[in-house]
């Protein structure tokens, strides 16, 4: 995960086993499924975990809570079984 703009802004980076989809971007099933297929060819649906995360992306480090400083993400994680099956490292 990285600070992409300045010392007080944060945006999560995708990792080998995780993709973050911002609610500000395209969150259609076709788009998400396409990105999953690009990143993890041949993955089965039972090897995926979907979750939602509310992450502070603005004014990081300030002591005051402001809901507008947070962004919502759909998070897709490939399970270890995919990497074991395909011999890729997570």
Describe the structure.
The chain has 2 helices and 3 strands. It has helices at 29-39, 80-86; strands at 18-22, 48-56, 70-78.
Number of strands: 3
Strand order of the largest sheet: 1-3-2
Helix count from the secondary structure assignment = 2
Low-confidence stretches: none
- Taking all residues together, what is the mean pLDDT? 89
**Helix/strand/pairing category:** alpha+beta
Order of helices and strands: EHEEH
Q: How much strand content do the residues show? A: 25-35%
Features:
about 90 residues, alpha+beta, 3-stranded antiparallel β-sheet, 2 helices, 3 strands
Q: Would you spell out the secondary-structure blueprint of this structure?
A:
Layout lengths: L17 E5 L6 H11 L8 E9 L13 E9 L1 H7 L4
Antiparallel strand pairs: 1-3, 2-3
Question: What is this structure, in a nutshell?
Answer:
This protein has 90 residues and is an alpha+beta fold. The protein has helices at 29-39, 80-86; strands spanning 18-22, 48-56, 70-78. It is built from 2 helices and 3 strands.
């Amino acid at each position: 995960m990285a600070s992409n703009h300045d010392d007080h802004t944060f945006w999560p980076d995708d990792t080998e086993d995780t993709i973050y989809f911002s609610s500000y971007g395209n969150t259609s099933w076709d788009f998400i499924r396409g990105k999953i297929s690009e990143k993890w060819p041949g993955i089965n649906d039972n090897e995926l975990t979907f979750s939602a995360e509310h992450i502070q992306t603005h004014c990081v480090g300030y002591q005051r809570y402001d809901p507008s400083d947070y962004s919502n993400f759909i998070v897709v994680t490939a399970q270890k079984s995919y990497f074991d099956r395909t011999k890729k490292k997570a």
